[in-house]
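User: Quick sanity check before I run a bigger batch. Here is a single chain. Can you write out its predicted 3D structure?
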Amino acid sequence: MRIRATVAAVTGALALSALAVPAAQATDSTPSKADSFKAAQAAHQAASGKTAFTGVGAADTGTPYALNAKFSGVKVNNGKPIVVGTTKVSVPVTFTVTHAADVDLNADDIELDVVIYRGTVADPANVLLGDDWPACTNASATVSNCKGTVDIYPTEELSNADATTFKAFGYVIDWNDVDPFAEDIDWTKVGYAEQDALATTKLVRQSKLTVNASPEPVAKGKTITVTGRLTRANWDTNTYTGYSGVYAQLQFRKKGSTTYSTVKSVKTTSTGGLSTTVKASVDGYYRYTFVGTTTASAVSAAGDFVDVR
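Assistant: Done. Predicted structure follows.
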């Protein structure tokens, strides 16, 4: 398992604090997060013609050469929003890299990844990446198809502000047997390529919805009260809290039918509560459904059956 902060910092300005990593992911046999961060950041800074990251090596010299590698066809979570609750979520990342014939993406001294971030490359607010390096399969001598993941730990990595659009950033570093943690690095021996804005993806807070229709059974023509509650993941507190001030639709499906029809819209209370009344007519199922917002996922409650007599 990789240290998740490794080379996500190639953007040159990624704050180490933005790459908070569960301690359980590190092992004694892997480099420290700080060392990996410094080496990766130094690669970007050297490629940009800037002074290498302070502390990487006092005698670092030169500039990495431009590695012939280009990303295309990047898809994060198959193009769908990433719905995150309060536990770990892993989503697929697929992409193609076109490269020179002498670039072996599976070589031990090559580091390659596509990560997602929000904010700007120069000053990202958060960066999310995978637990392991992507696996690449050669389609030809110059084209490789790669599959990886973005592994999200909401307790350690997310706040409610992260319910927004993230961009994908790709990089390749060919260390060419250079020790990235050496006291001094000759950057002229290191190949480097990076590419920004490869794709976008949205993170949304997972929603949950309940329903209860009563009384049941009920006499035909009598009043049925349908209650429920809409909650969404709160990444600041790692709990689900009521989603207030939004509308859910009360829907009804007649017994024997497979189709729900909307009866009315109901606004949630300050605690996410839902309550309305309808007249009993025929046997069937009542449910609430929520179409979602820019920060919360769509969700439908399981239908609650009412026997009308």
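The two ends are 61 Å apart (CA to CA).

User: Great, the batch can go ahead then.
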